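Researcher: Please translate sequence to structure tokens.
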Amino acid sequence: MKCPFCSKENTRVIDSRPADDNSSIRRRRLCDVCGKRFTTYEKVETIPLIVIKKDNNREQYDRSKIEAGVLRACHKRPVSANEINKLIDEVENEIFNLEEREIESKQIGEIVMDKLKDLEAVAYVRFASVYREFKDVNTFMEELTKLLNNEKK
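Model: Translation complete:
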């Protein structure tokens, strides 16, 4: 690592620990030439994930979009913020564990619905009604019937 003060490459790590956000490593370094200390942060570089939308447009993955959809589905339901964050973390882990560079928004929606089904039934139906774009009451009732049949098992 090059020293930011004297630009020499003779530096060494004197302390290393996780940073406050726990997603990077904080390293305290000492320049052997000028004797000054400085801090560097090391972070894992992730491969950007591209989401293929319904209209075949592509855009970079954005966690806040999943969060917004789940928050709308859980509005005025007995679901805590911690449960919502845990659900979103689980969805993200599942998505990134696929190790794909591109994923269809449809696949993300299915993962979210699967997790919501286990968390809160009304939130699941709300999310599904928007996500699946129910055209009429019959398709809505079919989804409710499926949900009720799964709960009986």
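Researcher: Any highlights?
Model: The chain has two domains: 11-43, 50-151.
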